[in-house]
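User: I'm new to structure prediction. If I give you an amino acid sequence, what do you actually give back? Let's try with this one:
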Amino acid sequence: DANGILNVSAVEKSTGARQDITITNDKGRLSKDDIEKMIAESEKFAADDAEVLATVQARNQLESTAYSLKATVRDDAEKMGMSDEDKKTIADAADAEIAFLDETSEGSTDEYKSHYDALMATVNPVMGKYAGGAGGAPGAGGMPGGMPG
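Assistant: Good question. You get back a string of structure tokens that encode the predicted 3D arrangement of the chain. For your 149 residues, that looks like this:
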């Protein structure tokens, strides 16, 4: 039938002996143990995937911030009235993180977050001086009290 089970009855006519057999088609089907094993593996891999995702997000945050800072110094520093010393501080910090990223293809989430925090600790005080002008530190600022909603 549709379940891959065949019930067969055989009767020997001379003796009247009856025999019932059930034939199942187990070939190509997963056993309950196989299914449970696959579920356990998928749960394990889901945790691994979440860890990889967090690492990629941390790396991307560091990378996009570093490049954004370089663009800010290149494109907006003059409009902001930024001093040469402050431009150099920001550019050097961004370049150092870009070099770190170029050398590090298999960093940990904590490593990327630590570098991001160090970059922000260097850049935020400098960018804070120019917060009233154009540009600003990526991810910094915003509306006081948050967006209305």
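You can read the tokens as a compact description of the fold. Here is one thing that stands out. Confidence is low (pLDDT under 50) at residues 133-149.
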